[in-house]
Amino acid sequence: TQPKNRELLADLNQAQRDAVTHVGGQLLVVAGAGSGKTRVLTRRIAYLLAERKVHPGQVMAITFTNKAAAEMRERVVELVGRRANAMWVSTFHAMCVRILRREAKVLADVLAGSSGVTSNFSIYDADDSRRLINLVARDLDIDPKRYPPRGLAAQISNWKNELMTPLDAKAAAASDAERKAADVYPEYQRRLEQANAFDFDDLIMRTVELLRASPDVSEYYRRRFRHVLVDEYQDTNHAQYVLVRELSGTERTESGTEPAELCVVGDADQSIYAFRGATIRNIEEFERDYPRAHTILLEQNYRSTQTILSAANAVIARNSGRRDKRLWTDSGEGEAIVGYVADNEHDEAAFVAGEIDALVDDAAAGFKYSDVAVFYRTNNQSRVFEEIFIRLGLPYRVVGGVRFYERREVRDALAYLRVLANPQDTVSLRRILNVPKRGIGDRAEAAVASYAERERISFSDALRVAATSGSEVGLAARSANAIARFVELMNELGKLVEADEPPADILEAVLERTGYRAQLDESDDPQDATRLENLTELVTVAREFGEMPEAFQTEADAVAAAEDAEAAGVDEPEQATLAAFLERVALVADTDSIPDADGDAEDDADDSDDDAGVVTLMTVHTAKGLEYPVVFGTGWEEGVFPHQRTFGKDDELAEERRLAYVAITRARRRFYVSRALVRSAWGQPMYNPASRFLDEIPAELVEWRREEPTNGATSGGLPRAATTWGRGGGFGNDSAQARLAAGGMRSTSFSGWKDDWKKTAALELAVGDRVNHDKYGLGTVVSTDGSGPRATATIDFGTSGTVKLMLMGSVPMVKL
Ligand code: ATP
Ligand code: MG
């Protein structure tokens, strides 16, 4: 059906309409949650195509996740038809990969440190990059205990997000740890180049460098993309900010190209990625950086009930230094927020499951499973929900938490493919060198690595030398033979790639000929059966990928887009090559994207009308930008949410509070909030007081289904009826808390409240104190927090890990 342009504006308010139809220059839309920012962005694109006759090839839209990109594309196609497929709608990372592949030749010419780059480069994810940093740090004799690779990697990532080169980093490094990271940085970059690989941060940084170094390339993209649109602008980091500026331009170029129309939308209160270098500054200073920019505020919320909105507003109001926003809704009061204090995490999960069941059963309420989302602060909290959902037969999926692409066997299989696509990919090559075991031991690997260093050649090339002349590399004949067989195997497999066989066939061949599948087949370990299933799943993903180019729903769409692209003189739609498959996988597996629970890269199909869909489980971070009729906010406890790591750090606590704001504002009609009195962490019971965010929700908005008991005499189960003390979530009753804190038992049953606690005084500890714990052994106090019943200490128990413990109660620990 051909859309009527009028309809594009019909269901928008005046401010939204202004944003959609605004012509020229830069446009900033700042507004609270649920005010229609994403809707404005989508409509604006549709309006550009339908009304202002902009060619789809001139539009670049940037979203925060692959899923959001797919949805936006789908919406625009619905509004203006399939020719919209020629737009670029993607994440920053995907967009940069596309540019870098296209410009690999130029890149190799104009950028120092990129001479080894070809268009089949590998994309290193966080794990790959940590492995490489580990190798570099080892070669530089950096003590991994004092300077863990994770920390070095984080520091280098921060520098890249600030567009700081190794030289900049060296000059800026202020602490010992930073100086070590600055030593690693240039060598790490050299090895990346040698491996023909980019890490995620490089994708952005190198694209910026490319645009700056090559006026031709820069001019090409400026001329091409006349419209640049960015959603979730508050979560862009400095590098991304500069990238947007380079792409859209601020001044007319020498050859007369005007800056693109730039439209960014965001909400400073929803900035939740500062830990990855995101900076609200980008919003706050947009007007300064673009003096002619036009700003539009949206104030009406269309998503939530007044109750939900009031709760969210009250929580975020506690953050200082923010612009106060007047967000209102005319959708009515709605239902009260439901609160629940659980005995433990299992009880909490049982409550959530029971409530979901009741909601879906209630025909009058009209909720489906797919209307419900359960949020938690960290991924590991999903397990308890999964267990009970499975037991009760409640359909669910975990978003982002399953980490299909992080499983060992999946990574191994992909590493083979990556080496086949890019033989210089050292990290992948070393990963599979002796997997499955083929007699190439650590010593042989080390000999090849040091030969490569000595001769300044790549590991891959050194391996080839070893295969033909083991003695040259200093290898025993047996190792050299094993390496020769491996090189031969990879050569054979490489022929399949040269012949452009479908990725799925190449993958099958890898699993067969390397003996990887046989080894799992023969194993008695039940885990290996799961591994086989996962590999089968990976083959399926590859198979499906091969069948249809990305982003096209039907053959006709693909053809139409190809014609469109041709007419506009833009890129061909992507081919289903091995490189394209690997790129797709790398981007789907990106931590800021949302792969489906079962790990396949297909779009959700759970919203179809004829099925009730599934409940979604996810972290609050992944929920950004989404909305659900019913939301369960779980684990609202001090130490969990806000996360313990943020205690005592004002800026990080402010970020946690924004996260709470994001959580509440995802809900359309119902919001539940729960916490557990006891939660096991590291196999130990933790007694966490109510989250401060819970206290910040006005009491009159919450209806407590179950509160914290006031009376210590209960045994065999907390009273189900609510006993009131203050506001249920509050922290007004020290004796109750003391009783809770005095546990020491691990209760896993839903009513598992035992009365074997004993009341003891809190252990007094200070930073630096040495302790001996019955289970963890000797440790040193690294930090303390809270006082009285809230007192906790974080203690480093060496190889047993770092553990946070409540100090009140029968802690099996003595101060030394
Ligand atoms: P967030 O900050 O969470 O990303 P947002 O500002 O992007 O939120 P949207 O997701 O675009 O908000 O919109 C929130 C909801 O309100 C959506 O369901 C959207 O369809 C609806 N909506 C937005 N504007 C209107 C309108 N003018 N009339 C009716 N519904 C609207
Ligand atoms: Mg949005």
Task: Give an account of the 3D structure.
Helix 19 (408-421) packs across helix 20 (426-432). The chain has 33 helices and 21 strands. 45% of the residues lie in helices and 14% in strands. By secondary structure, the chain is of the alpha/beta class. Residues 549-558, 591-610 and 712-760 have low confidence and may be disordered. The protein is globular and about 80 Å long. The protein has five domains: 5-99 and 214-298, 3-Layer(aba) Sandwich (Rossmann fold); 104-205, Arc Repressor Mutant, subunit A (Orthogonal Bundle), CATH 1.10.10; 306-319 and 331-400 and 613-741, P-loop containing nucleotide triphosphate hydrolases (Rossmann fold, 3-Layer(aba) Sandwich), CATH 3.40.50; 405-547, PCRA, domain 4 (Orthogonal Bundle), CATH 1.10.486; 770-815. Strands 9, 10, 11, 12, 13, 14, 15 and 16 form an eight-stranded mixed β-sheet that branches. The protein starts with a helix and ends with a strand. The protein binds adenosine-5'-triphosphate and magnesium ion. The site of magnesium ion has 4 residues, from helix 3.
